[in-house]
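RESIDUES AND SHAPES:
===
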Amino acid sequence: MAQTTALIDALKQVLKEQSITYSQVADHLDMSLASVKRLFSEKQFSLKRLDSVCELAGIEISDLARRVDQQRKISQLTAEQEQQLVEDEKLLIIAVSALNRWSFDDILNAYDFTEAEMIQGLAKLDRMKMIDLLPGNRIKPLITTDFQWQKNGPIQRFFETQVQQDFFKSRFNGPGEIRLFVTGMLTPASNAVMQQKLERLAIDFRRLHQEDLVKPLSDRYGTSMVLAMRPWELEFFLRHRRAGTKKIFPG
């Protein structure tokens, strides 16, 4: 019912955007205006009628579904939600894994969580509207492709106090690793140019991440980039790994 309601609400939005009136819908469906208004208020459309109104608006039902799906996605958590993740490292691991399209079994097999802990964590993420927890413990991430953590928020502060030190415990000379350090004197204009290039690099990174989400998990490696890049997993993630499940980047 909730999905049907969302579809009808999206259809109403489309009709409004195209200035299509209920009277026009009534003429198209060969119904009275009162009956059409009742259809929308009670949200009791048959599939045939829904398809017919979509035809009037020049769209497909699948277009409505995509619109509904996009409207439900979030591009950022609140500071309070980020704090919940920072305060519960198991929940943070489950969240990061779920957003990277790991399945329930993928996470359970890789980390020392019980099924009860997994379900509890995923249910909490569902309440935070980060994911949909579907029947059969299937996980549907609900974040946009440009999702970002809060600037100077709990996750970023967590990164600054714990993650950076862990990240740079490397000589960056292993497979898949690189560290670049350059120094010089730049004008403010040149500095701005470099910042734009770095932002575009971050966009390329996020694009590749999105493209690779459809690849098998066995072919994907947790990778971080801070003007340096290496396959890498947080130390506390490793503490919870089951024996024999640590992945080695091929070289």
